[in-house]
Amino acid sequence: MAPHTKILAAYAKSGRASCKKCSNAIEASSLRLALVTKDPRGYDITKWHHFECFTVSPDLLPSAELISGFSSLKDSDKERLKKLISEALEDKEEVSDKDESEKNKKEKRKIADIQETDVEENTEPEEDKIKKAKVSDNEESAKNQRGKRKLADVQETDGKEDTDAEEDRIKRKKSSVSVKELELEMAFSITDVKSHYKGAKLLPKWKAFQTAIYLERDEGTIDSEKIAAFDFDGCLAKTFVKRIGAEAWSLMYPSIPEKLQSLYNDGYKLVIFTNESNIDRWKNKRQTAVDSKIGRLEGFIKLVKVPIQVFIACGSSANTADPFRKPKIGMWSLLKQHFNSGLPIDMDKSFYVGDAAGRKNDHSSADIEFAKAIGLKFYVPEEFFPV
């Protein structure tokens, strides 16, 4: 266990949090246990579990009374916790005894093996000596044959060097062309920037580039080596598939504004990377889809009171060639190459938070794959934001 890890006991305030072991929801008012650790930035990361799913480490907690929140529990639940800790301590003692016994057995076997080896070394049969002599002769013969083959290989290699060199030059040339083509795909020209997306008008400060929409620099927006990046739907905001409109959203976690403000004050550039295929798919209602998505994002930024750079990937999931739709990293490339003043990004301090982590009840694994493709540390929202 990490030195700053502690255990927390509390009754679930709602049924929103899920168990980190079984991934099922933790029923409201039920007893839950959490491991609370410090992340590299000093924030608490709380991982809730069902009581039945929680595994106690006796090294971390020798007494139930040391659990945070223990005093506020019902007497019956206090007894359950005491029993849980007691059983964990008993299991540890049993394992310790078994380990000690096994260690003693290994030591005895080791001594016996050494004694047996000493006897065998002094009584090596004569026929074994003869076999060793024959093996030595065979090895010498094989060595001579390898020497002859090596000489032949060297002579043959001299004739191939020119051909291999030419092949290497061709490969390098092809590789150079591939890299150049990739850079052209991410090339950003002001002449390619539009104030509308396929006929749908964008609000002021919002622009379209290829199949992406982005928010221009707002007042207070900073560039930084430290990037705090987030998904939007299901991560920062609770939205609904069948409900549309700029107001059809709510804050995912109450702690979000304070957490984002803290990151901003610590010098992080805040960024949202979000997919929105409805903008492309709703050909007859594209303006509605655009207004709905951008309206929600603007409402969120206004609520949290911190400037955030936003990128929206509008392409459909059916278009696998779209470079911007997560898990493709096109939106990240735009940020890195054209929207961060060329500052090198500190990957050790930067991170990405998203809800699509490929878990049992997740709609996809796009967010975690996006983070992996970039090389960013990844968190799920219920882990990153205090519940």
UniProtKB/TrEMBL annotation:
GO terms for molecular function: ATP-dependent polydeoxyribonucleotide 5'-hydroxyl-kinase activity; double-stranded DNA binding; polynucleotide 3'-phosphatase activity; zinc ion binding. GO terms for cellular component: nucleus. Residues 98-113, 128-143, 150-162 have a biased composition (Basic and acidic residues). Residues 115-127 have a biased composition (Acidic residues). It comes from the Eukaryota. PROSITE patterns: ZF_PARP_2. Pfam families: PNK3P, zf-PARP. GO terms for biological process: DNA repair. It is found in: Nucleus. Residues 91-172 are annotated as: Disordered. Keywords: Metal-binding, Nucleus, Zinc, Zinc-finger. Residues 7-85 form the PARP-type domain. NCBIfam families: DNA-3'-Pase, HAD-SF-IIIA. PANTHER family: BIFUNCTIONAL POLYNUCLEOTIDE PHOSPHATASE/KINASE, BIFUNCTIONAL POLYNUCLEOTIDE PHOSPHATASE_KINASE. This is PARP-type domain-containing protein. It comes from Cuscuta epithymum.
